[in-house]
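Re-run with default settings, no changes from the original entry. Doing this only to confirm the output is reproducible before filing.
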Amino acid sequence: MSALVLGAVFGAATSLVNATSHHYADLESEVATTSGASVIEIVSVLIDSGWAWAGLAVAMGWLATRTKGAQTEGAQTKRAQTKRAQTEGVQTVETRTREAWTGETRTGGTGEDGLGREHAGENRSGTLVHGAVAGAVALLTATPAYGFADTVWRGEPLATWYLSESPVWWVAGVVFGAPLGAVGACVTRPGVIGLLARMVVPVGAAVQMVVLPPGRNERITVIGQAVVWTLAALFAGFVIVRFLGGRRSAPPGPEAAAQGE
């Protein structure tokens, strides 16, 4: 539901910003055309860009799986504890005594750790699918919302709103929205995978400023590039610092602890 609502809001808001920018742009003046710029026009070229729409899909994938992941983790912990209690209930006294003295544990996923790994794998696959669906739904909702809002701003018949959007954007919503939503679902994962997922949007935004510079004149292009590169660098730096800080504060593994003793 959040992907539907936020996708529609993003699409309509992008259309509104573009319409406002075009309304106040003085395209008849040579000076304004070649070197003119306004705050609303800068916002327009930033929000109506590929990296911003990609960021919407990533954000929806993260948002859709964040709460669900926490709930699922709690349920999995309860199931693992219940299964372990049932397993211990049928163990013989001799087996439990041997495990206590020798430190042996049963393998094959029947213990708490085995169940945790099994359920974690299932949860991870389900989370990726859920995030992919949310990302695709968000872009598929934003596309018609953008077209409908464009039709309203232009004063055209509402029945023709779908004509303003090329079918390629509908296809792109699925082709790019699904994997980007899956990336968003990986944002909360620890380790390198989580780091890479969090870096997708800032890196993509920085690259787009080089490959597809924004704006209709050089001044808008320079300002747009400066804003995006600055924000991307700040966000990427924040992500990297938190990642490195988390690795330093993580408790040592069993082997490291043994060596320390």
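Confidence is low (pLDDT under 50) at residues 69-77, 104-116, 254-261. The chain has one domain: 2-190.
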